[in-house]
Amino acid sequence: MAEEKNETDTAKAGALRSSLTIELHSHYAIRLWEGRRRQPDDLRERGRPQILSMPRVIQRAGLMSRDAEGDNPYADMALLKLENALDLATTEIQKLVDELEATLKAIPARISLTDVSSVSPLNIGVFSRTPLGYRCVWLLVGYDQLAMKVFQASHYGLISGKERDEMLSNGGHLVRKVYGVAQHYRSFAVTRADLQQNTVIASEAVKLLGDVDLEVMTGKMLSTFSPNLKKLAENSEASE
């Protein structure tokens, strides 16, 4: 006879898991995924700045989040700056995509165009420890969509070669600005308590990284994805 379970026993669900895979169809987006390393021995690369790869950007976003969990206000400043840059870039790229979609629809009647895609897209598995890392990936996928529509519109003579190049350049610049926020982040082991107490480590941090924005310091202005958002908001309300 099977042993009866205690009524107090409860079933527990296992850990939640999910996987994410993206497809990149344009060489422009693929190059931004891969980034560009400095090659001092390559004359063609001299004077060209390094561009982080997307995996490195995701890693830096995770580092910001980890540091912010340790009550590091500089990390919170970086997360806020990254989120703001992502919001701006996403909005601007979507405007360009909407503009191209309107152009592609403005064709003579009885003509239909299929969506453009690569015959062999690059399939990539993605994992990020922070939502902002995924937001960076969404931005790049949006730029990939823009690039495909740009080439399609140019191929059929709906935009000029100059317009094509400008749209690709402007979109790529927006993505690289987001990369720049991640690239310039410097991890430094300092907390809000250190800064409030003006410790030696706090003095070193200020010399190296500058002052912390007061509203970020108090938790009144933080990234939507800051791990300290709820805790700092509660502390700020309690102090008022």
Explain what this protein looks like in three dimensions.
There is one protein chain. With 240 residues, this protein is mainly alpha-helical. The chain contains nine helices and two strands. 57% of the residues lie in helices and 4% in strands. Strands 1-2 form a two-stranded antiparallel sheet. α3 runs antiparallel to α5 (161-183). The protein is elongated and about 70 Å long.
Topology, please?
Elements: E1 20-24, H1 27-34, H2 54-69, H3 73-105, E2 122-126, H4 131-155, H5 161-183, H6 192-197, H7 200-209, H8 214-218, H9 229-239
Antiparallel strand pairs: 1-2
Structural class: mainly alpha
Strand/helix succession: EHHHEHHHHHH
Number of DSSP helical runs: 9
Helix content: 55-70%
Number of strands: 2
Radius of gyration over C-alpha positions, nearest whole angstrom: 23 Å
Mean pLDDT: 88
The major sheet is characterized as: 2 strands, antiparallel
Shape: elongated
Spatial ordering of strands, largest sheet: 1-2
Portion in strands: under 5%
Distance between the termini: 64 Å
Low-confidence stretches: none
Protein name: Integrating conjugative element protein, PFL_4669 family
Pfam family, one: AcaB
Organism: Candidatus Pantoea symbiotica
InterPro entries: AcaB
In short:
The protein has 240 residues and is mainly alpha-helical. The chain has helices at 27-34, 54-69, 73-105, 131-155, 161-183, 192-197, 200-209, 214-218, 229-239, and strands at residues 20-24, 122-126. It has a domain at 56-108 and 125-230.
Structural key phrases:
single chain; 240 residues; mainly alpha; 57% helix
